[in-house]
Amino acid sequence: MGRRKSPLVSALVKLTRAGLRQSTRIGKAAAEQGIRSGGELAERAGRVLRGVATPTDAPKPITGGRWYEGRWGLGPLAMRRYRLFIPTGGSTRKPLPLLLLLHGCAQDTAAFAAVTRAAVTAKSRGFAVLMPEQAQEANPQRCWNWFGSEARVGLETQLLMAIVDHAVAAHPRIAGPLFALGLSAGGAMAMTLALRHPERFTAVGSHSGAAPHSAATPLQAGQSMRGRRSPDADAIAQRLAGRRLPPLVLIHGDADRVVSFDSARAAAGLWLDLLPDGVSPREQEDEVTRGTRRAVVRHDWKTGRQPYLRLLRVRGLGHAWSGGASGQAFSDPTGPDALRLAWTFFAATMEQGAAPPL
After folding, report:
1. In angstroms, what is the C-alpha Rg of the chain?
2. 65 Cβ partners below 8 Å, 6+ apart?
3. What is the DSSP letter of 173?
């Protein structure tokens, strides 16, 4: 009689198969964005091994700010690298705002810093940027684990908050209002952080991310990314136990074939469902076009005078960072600058006060 395979081995086999399927989808998505890496087989193989679609050099120093690198986590087995950009200015009495910026699958912090031009925008707008980096040991495709078991997702959020606390403790002049923004899996994780630690964030944002708390398995995650699963608002409300959600900005392309625009609608619906009884936000919709950039349909919900929810639908944009640098995977230079769009919303929440608008 053959030996029975242990449950642990079976679970690892299933995770590996799921990872391979996900890696194939990511590779196809990158190809659809027209990424060309030079054609050398050895170079391509190296990129696959590193799990980064377009490897990039470390961010270069710029005048008016400084990049820092570090490593932190919850212990020896749960550590992550991070990059931190701090512009000049700020003090312990008047600290700079801090943006937690989360990359997408098949990216690392160097590539994402290049795509978003994080340092340039942070310097001009006066905020610091903290960019944790997912490890391949935690996810072969470098995706943030926005779905899975309660323990897995909970560990991921605790780890990210630990990195935030470490960075602020080491640099007190970045202890201002805290924001989170991410691309794809990073966007879903930014919203997950808001749902689990709403008191910590002044506002959060997601670019091309699936609706949070909408999947527990890879199959369900695929359904969520196609807009066929929605979060359970009642269950999330019980978890929140009366805590107020931070405002949310959603940026999503209506030509996204990896994460459907319906996912953005589901996330917006969740935020609206979690408003207290009796609160009716005012709605406003308009379309913005600037130069030759892609047009954006902007849909706002406000509670009183305060921004609560903004959904930005970028016409013709696929699964890519809007206004990103050329030559990078998951980056579309023809769109409006997503980081500036998000920060405009974040700045408005600070003008109305640090507390969430409920």
Report:
1. 20
2. 85, 86, 87, 88, 119, 122, 123
3. G
CA distance 148 to 141: 15
- The type of residue at 271 is W
Q: Which amino acid is at 265?
A: R
Helix (H, G, I), strand (E, B) or coil at 246: coil
Place of tokens 């879903």: 188
Tell me the three-class secondary structure of 185-229, residue by residue.
Answer: HHHHHHHHHHHHCHHHCCEEEEECCCCCCCCCCHHHHHHHHCCCC
Tokens 């405009």 found at: 344
What pLDDT, in 10s, does the model give residues 295-306?
999 999 999 889
Please spell the DSSP secondary structure of 290-302, one letter per residue: -TTSPPEEEEEEE
Residue type, position 115, single letter: V
For residue 99, give the H/E element and its range: strand 98-102
Beta bridge partners of 205: 181, 249
Q: Where are the alpha helices (DSSP H) in the chain?
A: 7-32, 41-50, 109-116, 118-125, 150-170, 185-196, 218-225, 233-240, 261-273, 338-351
For residue 130, give both structure tokens: 């903290």
Per-residue model confidence as pLDDT tens digits over 123-154? 999 999 999 999 999 999 999 999 999 999 99
Name the region of 200 (left: φ>0; alpha: ψ -120 to 50; beta: rest).
Answer: alpha
Angstrom distance (rounded) from CA 262 to CA 210: 9
Amino acid residing at 74: L
